[in-house]
């Protein structure tokens, strides 16, 4: 996938590089020649197409990064589930081993009891046989029975006593035989249970192996996805930089075109002004010629009138001179000169009056702009002064801590959280942690081993919660799935400080302790440490577990 991205990137970055180079050359040329450049429509169109292609490619990369990030997130959640599968398999294996050991001990005890029963039965049988032989010998010889007897009645009593003793011995033998049979049956049943326990131990051991293998395979997949995700981020950033460069190139070409058009408009305005000035000068010359002609035609008038007329013409000439000066002021674009021209004029010259009007308008606009600026600054100052007064705000309240709880329960929650918070910064160690504190991690054949968890003293997620709740006498198993079965379940919308949060099916993936305000404390994963994180709602179980 990264190689395909590189091929696609080279496909659309080549034209962008050309556009950027052209823009740089155009800029350098503009500095050297001091003339606005007029980029062609084709250049502008090509630059816009390159920027559009870059933007489309960037959007595809953003989508790819988002998709890759989602895959990595799903795999991390799956890794948590598989990690807890291994934890469960280890807990189950330990339980099966304990059961098998207890059953083997019971079988050995039953066998010993059976051996004792057999020995007791053999001893009693031997006594019974000896007594039976004695009775039989005495029965065949009546003389032996009568020997020492005072009379026949005494002899009969002796014989009866022997028979009663024989009966009791026979009962003893029967009882011992029954006990031997029961012991044999018990030994057989326990032997069967022992076989079952050994089979359960073997099954648990196989499940543990399978879980570790699945975890290792998923870890390899996660590493690959993480590499793809990182490469996608690099490609996205490169595409964004290229897009910015392409947009800058388009802006540069547009700016060049705008500067060129502005220069053309300025030249056209200058040409029009020069043409207008020439026309006005020609009209002025014609007017002067007509005035001179009229002066010659009026030579028949009286001398006073002629002198008056001559003075008027002299004044007109002066006015023309002033007007010319005013025109010069107009061409020099000096507002004050234009104003003086208007003042020195008699108002007969329209060009001079126009110049003076323009200067007056410019002065008015400038003054209005200044007043507007001062008003704006005053308004801004007023706004700043207004915002300088701190507003009265209400401190946010935490709905969890605002609820009424019993003092005993609240104290337990704070004890649990304080114990967990005391481990902030402790390394994550897969399989680590018990009721007494952090312990050495174990091997997993994958991510944990790559981070050296088996050689670290720390906690995994369920080890941290186990340790924290041991502070209030709650004994939790070292497996999230079993921890999820403890306590009372509440909807996640009702979570409170101290509740256990779970991820994965039936809490099978991960566990953390809720702190309130959308925060939790957790031992997240290999390579990390015990830390406070925002609650991740993706993949979280619908219920939380409350233990106190």
Automatic annotation (TrEMBL):
Protein name: NlpC/P60 family protein
A Pfam family matched in the record: NLPC_P60
Stretch forming the signal peptide: 1-34
GO molecular function: cysteine-type peptidase activity
Residue span, NlpC/P60 domain: 410-548
Biased composition (Acidic residues): 294-304
Top-level taxonomic group: Bacteria
SUPFAM superfamilies (alphabetical): Cysteine proteinases
Comp. bias regions, Polar residues: 200-221, 251-262, 390-400
Biased composition (Basic and acidic residues): 165-181, 263-287
Family: Belongs to the peptidase C40 family.
Keyword GTP-binding tagged: no
Coiled-coil segments on the chain, per record: none
Biased composition (Low complexity): 305-389, 401-411
GO biological process, one term: proteolysis
């Amino acid at each position: 996938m990264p190689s395909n991205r590189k091929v696609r990137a080279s496909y659309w970055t080549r034209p962008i590089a050309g556009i950027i180079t052209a823009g740089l050359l155009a800029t350098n040329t503009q500095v050297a020649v001091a003339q606005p450049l007029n980029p062609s429509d084709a250049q502008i169109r090509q630059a816009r197409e390159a920027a559009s292609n870059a933007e489309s490619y960037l959007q595809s990369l953003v989508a790819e990064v988002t998709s890759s990030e989602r895959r990595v997130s799903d795999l991390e959640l799956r890794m948590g589930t598989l990690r807890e599968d291994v934890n469960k398999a280890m807990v189950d294996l330990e339980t099966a081993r304990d059961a098998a050991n207890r059953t083997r001990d019971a079988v050995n005890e039953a066998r010993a009891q059976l051996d004792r029963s057999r020995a007791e039965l053999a001893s009693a049988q031997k006594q019974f046989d000896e007594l039976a032989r004695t009775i039989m010998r005495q029965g065949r010889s009546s003389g032996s029975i009568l020997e020492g007897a005072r009379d026949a009645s005494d002899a009969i009593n002796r014989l009866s006593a022997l028979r009663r003793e024989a009966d009791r011995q026979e009962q003893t033998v029967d009882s011992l035989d029954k006990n031997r049979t029961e012991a044999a049956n018990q030994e057989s049943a326990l032997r069967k249970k022992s076989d079952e326990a050994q089979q359960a131990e073997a099954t648990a051991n196989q499940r543990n192996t399978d879980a570790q293998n699945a975890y290792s395979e998923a870890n390899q997949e996660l590493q690959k996805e993480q590499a793809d995700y990182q490469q996608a981020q690099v490609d996205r950033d490169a595409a964004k930089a290229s897009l910015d460069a392409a947009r800058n190139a388009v802006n540069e070409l547009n700016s060049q075109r705008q500067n060129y058009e502005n220069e053309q408009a300025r030249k056209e305005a200058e040409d029009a002004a020069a043409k207008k000035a020439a026309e006005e000068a020609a009209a002025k010359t014609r007017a002067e010629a007509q005035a001179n002609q009229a002066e010659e035609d009026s030579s028949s008038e009286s001398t006073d009138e002629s002198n008056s007329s001559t003075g008027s013409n002299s004044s007109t000439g002066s006015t023309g001179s002033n007007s010319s000066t005013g025109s010069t002021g107009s061409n020099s674009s000096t507002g004050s000169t234009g104003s003086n021209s208007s003042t020195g004029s008699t108002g007969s010259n329209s060009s001079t009056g126009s110049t003076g009007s323009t200067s007056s308008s410019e002065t008015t606009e400038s003054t209005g702009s200044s007043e507007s600026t001062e008003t704006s600054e005053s308004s801004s100052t007023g706004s700043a002064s207004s915002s300088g007064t701190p507003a009265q705000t209400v401190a946010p309240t935490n709905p969890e801590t605002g609820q009424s709880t019993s003092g005993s329960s609240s104290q337990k929650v704070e004890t649990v959280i304080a114990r967990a918070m005391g481990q902030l910064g402790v390394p994550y160690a897969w399989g680590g942690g018990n009721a007494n504190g952090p312990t050495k991690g174990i091997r997993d054949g994958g991510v944990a081993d790559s981070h050296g968890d088996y050689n670290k003293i720390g906690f995994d997620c369920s080890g941290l919660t186990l340790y924290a709740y041991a502070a209030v006498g709650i004994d939790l198993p070292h497996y999230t799935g079993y921890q999820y079965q403890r306590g009372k379940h509440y909807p996640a919308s009702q979570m409170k400080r101290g509740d256990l949060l779970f991820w994965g099916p039936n809490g099978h993936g991960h566990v953390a302790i809720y702190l309130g305000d959308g925060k939790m404390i957790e031992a997240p994963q290999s390579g990390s440490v015990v830390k406070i994180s925002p609650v991740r709602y993706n993949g979280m179980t619908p219920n939380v577990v409350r233990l106190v």
